[in-house]
Each structure stands twice: as C-alpha cells, then as structure tokens.
Structure to design on (76 residues):
C-alpha cells in the first residue's frame, strides 16, 4: 500500500519495528520504531519519558517526509 500511495504523489513514511520487511515491500522512507507489541512507545518508561520517545519518533517521521528520496532510505 505504501508504494501505491507514493505512486499517487503523496509522500509516505513507513514506521515499523522490522525494517527488513519494510525494505522487502518497497517502502521508500522507513523509520524504525521500538518493539512489535509497542511500536510507538515503551511501557517500561515513565509517562514523561514515553511521551518524549513518542514525540521524537513522530518528529523523525515528519522530517523524513520533507526529504526527497530516490529509492529506499532508513531514517535512524
């Protein structure tokens, strides 16, 4: 689906826990996340730390949208 949305002219960031799968499906902008059961969070963190973690992941994804890519790129 990511490739089809990009083909329609909308940039997409695929946020995922298993980067090789994203590479296999052909996602162009990939942001690695935390863990399969908690991709955008960590229940072991306190409330403020988890909020900061989530914010940093979303900010990384938004920055990835601003960058023109030619092919696949993983935004660490």
């Amino acid at each position: 689906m990511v490739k089809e949305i990009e083909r329609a002219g909308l940039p997409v960031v695929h946020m995922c826990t298993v980067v090789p799968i994203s590479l296999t499906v052909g996602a162009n902008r990939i942001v690695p996340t935390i863990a399969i059961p908690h991709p955008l969070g960590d229940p072991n963190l306190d409330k403020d730390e988890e909020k900061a973690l989530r914010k940093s992941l979303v900010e990384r994804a938004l920055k990835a949208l601003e960058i023109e890519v030619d092919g696949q790129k993983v935004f660490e």
